[in-house]
Amino acid sequence: MADSKQTIDEQLEEQQSEEQQSEAQQPESPGATAPGAQPCEPVEATHSDGDASAIEGDLDELVAVGAQRDEYLALAQRTQADFENYRKRVARESALAQERGVTKLAKELLPALDNLDRALEAAAHDDPLLDGVRLVRSELSASLARVGVKSFSPLGETFDPALHEAMATVPAAADGGAESGTVVEVYQPGYRLGESIIRPARVVVAA
User: Fold this and answer.
1) 189 exposed, middle or buried (CB, 10 Å; 0-12, 13-18, 19+)?
2) How far is CA 76 from CA 11, 38, 45, 98, 124, in A?
3) DSSP output for 53-85
4) Counting Cβ atoms within 10 Å, is residue 170 exposed (0-12), middle (13-18) or buried (19+)?
5) By residue range, what is the domain housing residue 123?
């Protein structure tokens, strides 16, 4: 009996020793708290508010950049429109100045051209200077034509006070039945520059 009791006690001791060894080798669970340590509280996410503020700041910056871009675009469009208007105005003023200059020059030359015409009419057909006068008259007329000055002779046309200057009138019956208001003779041809009349034609009108 004594040996049997001793055997049971030895078995119990061995079992307790194995249990203690097993507990010593078992790893601690992740959530286990070390003896004497304070339990850890879960850390809450604190980045959500910061991210929202950053996004709002980016949106405000984009809105400001868009508004600035629209302002610069409107400024560029206004500048382009102003420059286009300025270019047209300068071109118009330049054309008018050129027209005034040509008109002034033509008015200075027309008396000389008229004198050449009178000389040609009065000269004898065998005058040796006749060809030279014709050449000078032709060159002068061509020079005026190159700058846009053209002559017009309204013989047979209806009298127009904007284009013609009546120097005299004759009865319609005395002129072989010409209609009243018709130009029957041209004393001096008229000259125009484009639509502008430099000098009206001096004419005789049937009344």
Assistant:
1) buried
2) 101, 69, 49, 32, 72
3) HHHHHHHHHHHHHHHHHHHHHHHHHHHHHHHHH
4) middle
5) 65-147
Strands of the sheet containing 201-206, edge to edge, are 164-170, 201-206, 183-188
Please report how the helices 130-146 and 48-122 are oriented relative to each other, as an axis angle in degrees rounded to 10: 160
141 with 117: CB under 8 angstroms? Answer: no
Terminal-to-terminal C-alpha distance of the chain: 177
187: number of Cβ within 10 Å: 12
Say whether both 152 and 113 belong to one domain: no
pLDDT in tens, 16-30: 666 666 555 554 444
| Count of domains forming the chain | 2
How confident is the prediction for the chain on average, in pLDDT?
81
Cα 184 from chain centroid (whole Å): 53
Whether residues 118 and 154 share a domain: the answer is no
**CA 136 and chain centroid, separation:** 48
Most distant CA pair in the chain, distance: 185
Do residues 89 and 72 share a domain? yes
- Separation of alpha carbons 205 and 114, rounded Å: 21
| Tens-digit pLDDT profile for residues 71-121 | 888 889 999 999 999 999 999 999 899 999 999 999 999 999 999 999 988
Could you give the 3-state DSSP secondary structure of residue 187?
Answer: strand
